[in-house]
């Protein structure tokens, strides 16, 4: 093909691609194929998963408002996303408009060339007819060359007609792009007050207000237990595993203590993931064997019951030394007052939002549970509460916000059956079931940071989620 034909073919190929792209992409850009541009009223709607929810449900006997606050799954609201999508759409339309302008200039330039070429072809055709009528006066060779050139140019005539049509289409596209840009600019102006930066500031402000509200929440009351989530299968039938509720968010170390007696080895893992994969970071050899499975890690130290005694040991992981030890006066030990499953579980050490606790039984309290709040540094008993619940009838127990929750069994069908509030020195019978999936629980402790129960369930390390009921403190509360 000659150079003019090559040039024209390239232009027509570009036109075809642009026409195809415009027909397929433009509808999706402006929302004609699957969605449509909505009004500003519609843009203000936020689905439940995208916004905070505050439910006011009731008032307690003292007239305090009881509320439920549900946090969003994501921090950014839908209007933020729609505003960002609108800006992206405007940018695409503007880029497309610029491309159309460039194409339009090229089209007009080439179109003028085509028109000129068309005129030349028509003149050539007329001249050819004249020459054909008078061909006897010309040499046969010259006639044949001229005829071949004409035959080569004849197929361009219908192509030129199509080119005219495509040039009109480009002009139409240019006008539609201009109209679309005007519409989108108008929409952006309508919701301009809700641009990204302002939306972000509003979300941050709302989060701060809700955090302030959370600070006013009183300690929660246990309402529900869900799960379990099986984290790992390891060790013997009895054991303990835990994290530190006072550790920072970046500190997710896990400690693992297999068996309920005749052991002094504590294994440390940097994270839950390392714990699951078995990648130990450190091993500690305690100076004494422990008794039971009711140990607790609190503020960087391990608290455990020394074997065959009622002595509590505080051991520092950082220094590898015993920082304190103290006898828990009158506390039964060595399977005198264990939980129903035995295992030297006489003394149960635990922590909650308030501090460090010891749960045990004494002869003076007829074998019923005694709750003692401990000084975390000296292990001194700060205050004690005597309950009427037999320690040997309890499957396991844990503290949440100063309230002791006791399960009725360590076997299948276990539920939280009894609770005792140290704030009011009162008890109540409860009925909060949970799924004892592996039929034998030998450790059950609450972690205030994770708001979860850690459990050792027949050689399975599992987690239970808890639902707590909160009351917002008023100015009259002390």
Characteristic terms for this protein:
disordered N terminus, rod-shaped, four-stranded antiparallel beta sheet, 7 helices, disulfide bond, Lipocalin, alpha+beta, signal, 478 residues
Number of extended strands = 22
CATH architecture group name of one domain:
Beta Barrel
H/E series, N to C? HHEEHHHHEEEEHEEEEEEEEEEEEEEEE
Largest sheet: 4 strands, antiparallel
Total of DSSP H or I helical runs spanning 4+ residues: 7
The CA-CA distance between the termini, in Å, is 95 Å
Order of strands across the main sheet: 3-22-21-20
- Poorly predicted regions: 1-59, 65-79
User: What percent of residues adopt helix (DSSP H or I)?
Assistant: 25-40%
Structural class: alpha+beta
CATH hierarchy class name of one domain: Mainly Beta
What would the CATH topology of one domain be?
Answer: Lipocalin
3D shape: rod-shaped
Radius of gyration, rounded? Answer: 40 Å
- Proportion of residues in β-strands: 25-35%
Mean pLDDT: 78
Subcellular location: Secreted; Synapse
Keywords: Coiled coil, Disulfide bond, Glycoprotein, Secreted, Signal, Synapse
Protein name: NOE3 protein
GO cellular component, one term: synapse
């Amino acid at each position: 093909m000659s150079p003019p034909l090559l040039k024209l073919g390239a232009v027509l190929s570009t036109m075809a691609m642009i026409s195809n792209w415009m027909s397929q992409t433009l509808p999706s850009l402006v929302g004609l194929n699957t969605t449509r541009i909505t009004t500003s009223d519609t843009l203000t709607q936020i689905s439940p998963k995208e916004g905070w929810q505050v439910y006011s449900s009731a008032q307690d006997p003292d007239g305090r408002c009881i509320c439920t606050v549900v946090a969003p799954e994501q921090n950014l609201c839908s209007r933020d996303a729609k505003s960002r999508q609108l800006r992206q759409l405007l940018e695409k339309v503007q880029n497309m408009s610029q491309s159309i302008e460039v194409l339009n200039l090229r089209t007009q330039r080439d179109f003028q060339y085509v028109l000129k070429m068309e005129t030349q072809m028509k003149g050539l055709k007329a001249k050819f007819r004249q020459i054909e009528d008078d061909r006897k006066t010309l040499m046969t060779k010259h006639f044949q060359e001229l005829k071949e050139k004409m035959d080569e140019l004849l197929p361009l005539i219908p192509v030129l007609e199509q080119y005219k049509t495509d040039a009109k289409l480009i002009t139409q596209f240019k006008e539609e792009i201009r109209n679309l840009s005007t519409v989108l600019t108008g929409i952006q102006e309508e919701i301009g007050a809700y641009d990204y930066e302002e939306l972000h500031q509003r979300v941050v402000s709302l989060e701060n207000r809700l955090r302030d509200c959370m600070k006013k929440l009183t300690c929660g009351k246990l309402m529900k237990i869900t799960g379990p989530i099986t984290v790992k299968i390891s060790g013997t039938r009895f054991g303990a595993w835990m994290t530190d509720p006072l550790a920072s968010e970046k500190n997710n170390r896990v400690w693992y203590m297999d068996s309920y007696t005749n052991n002094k080895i504590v294994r440390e893992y940097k994270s839950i993931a390392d714990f699951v994969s078995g990648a130990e970071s450190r091993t500690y050899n305690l100076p004494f064997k422990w008794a039971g499975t009711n140990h607790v890690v609190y503020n960087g130290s391990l608290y455990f019951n020394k074997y065959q005694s009622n002595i509590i040991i505080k051991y520092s992981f950082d220094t590898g030394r015993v920082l304190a030890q103290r006898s828990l006066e009158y506390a039964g030990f060595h399977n005198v007052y264990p939980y129903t499953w035995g295992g030297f579980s006489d003394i149960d050490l635990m922590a909650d939002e308030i501090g460090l606790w010891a749960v045990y039984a004494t002869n003076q309290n007829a074998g019923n549970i005694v709750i003692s709040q401990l000084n975390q540094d000296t292990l001194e008993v700060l205050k004690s509460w005597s309950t009427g619940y037999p320690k040997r009838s309890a499957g396991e127990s844990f503290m949440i916000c100063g309230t002791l929750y006791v399960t009725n069994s360590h076997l299948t069908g276990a539920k939280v059956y009894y609770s005792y509030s140290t704030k009011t020195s009162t008890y109540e019978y409860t009925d909060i079931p949970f799924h004892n999936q592996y039929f034998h629980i030998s450790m059950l402790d609450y972690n205030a940071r994770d708001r979860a129960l850690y459990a050792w369930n027949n050689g399975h390390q599992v987690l239970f989620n808890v639902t707590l009921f909160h009351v917002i403190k008023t100015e009259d509360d002390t």
